[in-house]
Amino acid sequence: MIVAFSITPLGVGEDVGAYVADAVRVVRESGLPNRTDAMFTSVEGEWDEVMDVVRRAVAAVEARAPRVSLVLKADIRPGVTDGLTSKVETVERHLAG
Fold first, then answer.
1. ∠88-79-49 over CA atoms, to 5°?
2. Average pLDDT of 46-52?
3. Helix residue ranges per DSSP H, 1-97
4. Which candidate among 16, 24, 42, 47 keeps its CA 20 to 30 Å from the CA of 33?
């Protein structure tokens, strides 16, 4: 499964980069395949391990912010691995063709 999620600290002002970095650090240290872009972080793995990473990333932000917003989207496809790479490669192949 691939989960794309965004964690936003609320009540801390406009500069939230340090808080977001706390969440992304948890994801990167998890060892699961992941990508971060300007809006979301995506992580790939089994249900329990991915949700645990999301939970811990939220907790990292929650430790410093009075309120946290979480947006999450999941692609649940049993048996599919390396979706983070293969989905993008498919689109790139169509763009090139």
1. 85
2. 97
3. 17-29, 47-62, 83-96
4. 16
Beginning with the edge strand found earlier in the chain, give each strand of the sheet holding 41-44 in spatial order: 34-36, 41-44, 2-10, 67-75
Please give the pLDDT value at position 87: 87
Q: Which two tokens stand for residue 92?
A: 């790139």
Residue-wise burial string across 13-47, b where 16 or more C-beta atoms lie within 10 A, e elsewhere: eeeeeebbebbbebbeebebebeeeeeebbbbbee
Residues 6+ apart with CB under 8 A from 73: 3, 4, 5, 40
Looking at residue 43, its amino acid is V
Query: At residue 79, what is the residue type?
Result: G
Token readout for 60 is 């990292």
Band (pLDDT 50/70/90 cuts) for residue 78 is: confident
